Amino acid sequence: MPRQRTYSASEAAAALGISVDTLRRWDRDGRIRTRRDAANRRTVTAGEIARLRGSEPRELSARNRFRGTVREIKTEGLLSQVELDAGPFRVVAVVTREAVEELGLEPGAPATAIVKATSVMLER
Fold first, then answer.
1. Backbone dihedral angles phi then psi of residue 73, each to the nearest 5 degrees
2. Which of 15, 19, 43, 94 has the smallest CB count inside 10 Å?
3. Rounded to an integer, what distance in angstroms lies between the CA atom of residue 23 and that of residue 32?
4. Strands of the chain, DSSP E
5. What is the pTM of this model?
6. Is residue 13 part of a domain?
């Protein structure tokens, strides 16, 4: 039987859309099944991630999606500025440092900017 892919705690948390602290709490509470590697670090199997995600994909009401590649990340304090090359568009988002870490964002990584706004105003 082939071995199932395993993920580190941070990779699993990112895949589940939760923080590593939440994953640790879920482990302590028995909500997620983890294993320990040779260095006693938590690992999570792909099957367990699929179980927790469920068969239903998350639905968002936002329709504007810009798929692209992370070009640059500037972090200062608690916030990070993420620049995304999305075809002919350049999308810049300011998010928390924690979000960047949880999503595993780094230059060259694929990412999607999802935009939902009732109005955008610029003036010069």
1. -130, 125
2. 94
3. 8
4. 6-8, 35-36, 42-45, 64-76, 79-86, 89-96, 110-115
5. 0.51
6. yes
pLDDT digits (tens, 9 = 90+) for 9-26: 999 988 888 889 999 999
Who's near 99: CB < 8 A, 6+ residues apart? Answer: 80
What is the separation, in whole angstroms, between the first and last Cα of the chain?
64
Treating both helix axes as pointing N-terminal to C-terminal, what angle do 9-16 and 20-29 enclose, rounded to 10 degrees? Answer: 100
Residues 71, 104 share a domain: yes
Q: Which structural domain range is residue 103 located in?
A: 64-114
Residue 113: closest CA among 76, 97, 53, 99 = 99
SS3 of 99, please? helix
